[in-house]
Amino acid sequence: MKIAKLLLFLFPFLVFAQDANIKPLDINLTNYEYPYPVQFLELTSQRQYMQMFYMDVTPENYNNKNVVLLHGKNFNGAYWETTIKALNAAGFRVIVPDQIGFGKSSKPDNFQYTFQQLAENTKKLLDHLGIGKATILGHSMGGMLATRFALMYPEMTEKLVLENPIGLEDWKLVVPYKPVDWWYESELKQNFQTIKNYQMANYYNGKWNANYQKWAELSAGWTTDPEYEKVAWNSALLYEMIFTQPVLYEFKNLQVPTLLIIGTRDKTALGKPLVSEDIQATMGNYAELGKRTQKAIPNSKLVEIPNTGHLPHIESFDQFIKPLIVFLKE
């Protein structure tokens, strides 16, 4: 009996030992070095003390323009490394927060996630840094957050950039509702192989290379931590937020110049395994969704990047950064 219990305890570690590149990481990534120095902002929200970590990188040739980079659900601020470097070279100060529940930031035991709350946290960070106006750039889930920020704080939003944002369609209209507990159990099953399989299928169209591997390993690293259940629970709450708080119905209300950067091969859509193949085929068609969204947002432009999936700034960096910098300098 004791041996069986020991094997059960060691099983997750034995699985990861099969892939020598998976570095065990704690749930706040204290043993993972970000590409630039990190600081944190103290927040008190919903009767909890939390720390919101961020990178703030100002170049020597600062042009007095600021860009805020908002990460997606399956990522954190670290994956903006090459984007930060390129924007700095062009003179932009770059602020990159890890939202609460992500990366190095706090993982609350219980938290009511709303895009409004995350937008308010982001505003508090900019207020703390003395930044009154910035371009807000959001990728994936970060695109939903960036949209909410621009709707709540148009006076602070100089421009808006949406890179393959999710939420361009309302999934709750076709995907059956699943409670938070269901998403939690699903997240507990995550490991490197499940993460890689998902990203290959939805992000990279079956392709894989060392650069994609790097970010999958980062996501997988903390699944080995004894406290990973906190990450899984926060992730489940975030699924609830994404499904129940769509922003697409308010695109028409955006008041700031907006750039859409869309990798047209992207097929990302939450909840696909829960619907029939016929319905799956109608979901996540970014070649169509990009055009539809551009028509919905006043004063917007669309840059399509062919043969590129969900992460243009990782998969097709040159095609991503060039139109971005042109837009920022207009």
| CATH architecture classification | 3-Layer(aba) Sandwich
Whole-number mean pLDDT: 92
Structural class: alpha/beta
Unreliable segments of 5+ consecutive residues: 1-18
Shape: globular
**CATH-defined topology:** Rossmann fold
Number of strands: 8
- CATH class equals Alpha Beta
Q: Largest sheet at a glance?
A: 8 strands, mixed
Distance between the termini: 69 Å
| Percent in strands | 15-25%
How would you characterize the overall build of this protein?
One of its GO terms (biological process) is acylglycerol catabolic process. Residues 1-17 form the signal peptide. It comes from Flavobacterium resistens. This is Alpha/beta fold hydrolase. One of its GO terms (molecular function) is monoacylglycerol lipase activity. The protein is α/β, with parallel strands linked by helices and 330 residues long. It has one domain: Alpha/Beta hydrolase fold, catalytic domain (Rossmann fold). 40% of the residues lie in helices and 16% in strands. The chain has helices at 2-17, 81-89, 115-129, 141-152, 180-188, 192-202, 210-221, 228-244, 277-280, 286-296, 312-315, 317-329; strands at 38-45, 48-57, 66-70, 93-97, 134-139, 157-163, 258-263, 300-305. Strands 1-2-4-3-5-6-7-8 form an eight-stranded mixed beta sheet, sandwiched between helices. β3 (66-70), α2 and β4 form a beta-alpha-beta unit. α3 (115-129) crosses α4. It is globular. The termini are far apart.
